Every structure is written in C-alpha cells, then in structure tokens.
Batch of 2 targets.
Target 1
Amino acid sequence: MKVYFVRHGESESNQQKIRLGPSASLTQTGREQAQLVANRLKLIQVDRILTSPYPRASQTAEIIQKTITSELHIHDDIHEIKSPSVYLGRSNDDPEVIALDELRWQNFKDETWHHSDEENLADSRTRAKKFIHQLSDMSDDTIIVVTHANFLRTLLAEMVFGEILSTDIYRCFAMGIVLGNTGITVVENRTDGSWKIITLNDLTHLE
C-alpha cells in the first residue's frame, strides 16, 4: 500500500498568521494550490481519498476528488492537533501566545500535563496509532490522505519510530521537518508491516 499524504492548501490562518482553529477555510491561493496538486495526483490510480473534517482540509480534498473522481470519505481521527482554546483569534506574535507556547514546550516531556483543553503529544499519538492501525487493515493499494502539518508530523514519527518514539526523538524529528501547503508526502507499507517514507513534502506542482 502507498499513502499519499497531502497537507491542505493555504488557509486563512496561514495567510493572516492568526490562530483560527478548526474553522479556517482555504484562501483563493489555497484553492489554486489544491487544484495544482489535484492535477498532479490524477496521474496515479487512487482507490480512495480520506480527509480531515476541518474545512481547510475537506475543501482541499473536494477539489482533488473532483479532478480524480475517487471516493471521498471524511475521517474524524486525522484532524489537526487541538491547541488551547485561548489561542483562538490571536496572532502568532501575541505575547501571551508566545509565552504559552514556551510553557507548553517546558512541560512537553510530561505526558500528563495540559494547560487547559488542548491535546498534548500523548493525546495526538493515541490518535495517530489508531489511524495507522486502520490504514494497515485497509485492502486498498493507493490512498490519498488530506490532513494537517502538525498531525502529519506525529503520524510520520509513529510510522518511522513506533514504540521507541520518545518525546526527545519526536521533538528533534518534528522540528526538522517542513511541511508546506499541499506538499505531498508518500509512505509505503512494506510486506513486513513496516512503513517507509518514500517522498517528503514534494511541492514540485507549485513551481
């Protein structure tokens, strides 16, 4: 099985540099990016498309689906990692947001720590493991998964490191990966059950 992970197109949050949470939709640039990646993906035979329910992802997936005409399914387990609700509507440069980001990093290794209502690494890993298990049980040869940058980092870390994944390994891995809007990351499930990253953040369609 090959899985083509696609990060959603540019969203209002990306453009305005404001934390809008689940509600952010695609910008006009984001829709254009989605069409470009759709035109590229139509060159492969796709069995199904899975998408996060968040508008910026589902809108990207719908544009892809109209171009390649594969079945589209919303999957609740692949939404973006939930940030504290106090972030909503605030700029990335807001001093309180910066201070809270730092506090969360300080407590990153504590799997029981939460500031408020956000998901921590343990929470997102639980979702990632569940989804990876579901992927492994699918009989499809080729799947497109439209999701989000932070959750995709968690998925990839789980696929590569599995049970040896620690907070230190995750932090180094996640901070070393850039995932652009509509970047394509391809992973393959081998016959021994292992997952291998074949392509990472391919943005050739945007050139």
Note: The two ends are 28 Å apart (CA to CA).
Target 2
Amino acid sequence: MEITEKQKQFNEIYEELSKNIDITETQYESAVRSYKSVGEWLSKPDSELAPFRPEIFPQGSFLTGTMIRPIDDCETLDVDLVCRLEGKRPEWTQNDLKQIIGNRLKNNGTYGKMLDDEGRRCWTLLYENSSKYHMDILPSIVSSGYTQVLEKAFSRNQFEQAEELAIRITDRFTYNFYSESSPVYWPKSNPFGYALWFQNRCNITTRKAVLLNENVNPLPDYQKKKLPLQRVVQLLKRHRNLMFGDDEDQPISILIATLSAKAYKKETDVISALRNVVKELEFHIEERYSPEYDRVIKWVQNPVNPEENFADKWPENPRKEKCFYNWLNKLQTDLTTTQNARGVQLQESMALMFGKKAVNKTFSDLGDKAYNDRANGKLFMDPKSGILHRNSEKGTIVKDHNFHGNKEE
C-alpha cells in the first residue's frame, strides 16, 4: 500500500533521527582496528593459543547493525566480541581456557593496563581514546572448519544452517567450570546463528541480504544505509535508554531486538515498521508453564535455541517484567502523541522520546535539506493539505525566497 505524503514526512524524520543516534563510521572503524589488534596478539606464534588459530569476531548489536551511541558523549560504547578457538588441549577446562586468554592479555603492556576485573563470561578491555568504548571478549571453542560454514551460511543467507553455528563458551557460574574438559558439556551459545535469523527477518525482498555478506570474516563493512527493522530497533533502544538511564532492570537489548524482529511485517519504510512493531510487540511474548517455578511465566524464545528464554530473569526479579511493560506503555503513548503533533509540538514531543540533542540536530539537518531543495526547485506543496513534498506531479513548486529586495527574474 502506497504511503501518504504525511507518512513520507514522518518517515524522513525517523530515518534522519536514526542516523543521528547510530554510531559514527569513525567509532565503528576505531573499534574494528582495536579488536583486530587484540586478535593478532592472541594468535602470535609465541602464544599458547596459536595452535588453535584464535580469531576475534563481533556479536550482538555490533554484528546486527543495531548499535547506538550513548546519550551522553562521556559514556562509553559497549562492543561485544567472541574469541573463537578451533579446538583446545584435551585437559583444558572452561577455567583453563579463560585464564590462558586472560593471561595472554595481561602479558601485553598495553592490554594489561586496560584489562578490567574478570567478568562472569568475558574479559573486558577499557579503551579511553576519543571514541570511548569497552570491549567484552567472550572465550569460545568451535570445531575445525567453522569459519567456512559461517561464511557459507551468511553469503547464501541460509537460515536453516543457523543451528550449525552454535559455539561452546565459558561461564564461571556453571557447576563444572573448573572440572569439565569436554566442550560438549560446556554452555552453548549461538550469536552468529541469531545474527543470521535477524538478517532473514530484516530482508524486505527475496534478494540477497544486505545486512551481512561474504565479508563476515572478520566483520561486514560499516552500513550507512540500513533496513527498516534495524532502524526500528535503534529507535526503541534509544527510547529505552532515555527512560531508564543506568537502571539495571531496564528491558535488555536482545529482548527488544527479538520481539521487534518477530513483530516486523516486512514494511519498506521506517515509520510504518515502527508503528506496527510498537503495536504488535507484546503479542509475541508467550506464556508457558515452568516446572522450576511451578507456575506460568512469560517466555520470549531464542529463535535459534528453543530452550532459551530471553525473559528468564523476570520470574526471579518481577521488577524487570514491570519495567518492560511500563516502557512499552510509555512507548505507545509517546508514539501516539508524536503522530498527532505538528510543527514545534512535534519536535518537542520527539525530544522527550529520543533526546533533545539528537532531535534538534535531526530537524536542523532536515531544514537545511529543505532549504537546498527549495533553492533548486525540488520542493513542492500540496494545494489542498499544504504539506510539503518532493513529488512534482502532486503540487506546485515552492519558490525560493529572495532576501536582497530584488525582483525574481
């Protein structure tokens, strides 16, 4: 269905806004250079890890193209990475693998100073340069030939291969962290299978996906132009961040991304996708009986691991569930308010949703664009509604102003 000129204007605003909350190409490339250097250090010939060909790969929002910059410029970006090893020594436990990677980082004069306290699953490097980010590096084990399987799955957009992309990871909260040497019994994760699923949900047509491509080793290029679902997830995460700040019970990003992807109906513009996702989001939260809690609980299934519930923390911490629904209710109310607003009121209502700085820049950028279009005879007005647009068949040209007191020639 063709969208109206009013919808096109809203879509232009949300497109421009999502660009202004996205990470910059400079930030992106800086992070890529940093993690490539870490991978090179881990794999040097004198490293105990070298025989297992360690490689660093992105995961999470950095891989799916849904990362956003912090609201406050002083805050840091969170870059999620996986350190993949093809095999290990037979006697190594999860703890052994994690400590060997940690010790290797400590033995580097630079990384040793940047290393944060050991996390549950990851090692974290704190970068204090102009880009301000920290990298969470998750140790993992894969089978020989994994990289080829990964590249084939993404280059051909084969979601049916997602299960083959699972990896074994370290988690010091597991009972066998110090004792089990067989990776078969280590925790399993599938960040690349999830990214493949998300890529499939993003696709508008049956053409080859643009989210990721053959160059997934080690990372796809920076995306200046993104698909509607990616933009929607970025906007929802921004609204979440503005509402909750540092509140640890705020809705987690993987939950927002998964529910958005499930609700998405292949809309080709951001505003239509945003409206639909916000409306349909909650209908993709299931209710299942849990033997563990002996009652029905909320369930958001991991699309590449049916046994995993992304809302698994809700039963033990009811405030997390409450925060989610409070956020969703506010999101729906805020979106309705902006849809009914005009002019200055529209800018003000959007500033409350997404932040004053980003919204003011968005309207300023669009104002500059409109000025240039008018000056070049590319801006038109619908004679009935007064709505400005760029379709010459549906209106009269908006003439450029003359600020010098001269008659137009």
Note: The chain is about 45% helix and 15% strand.
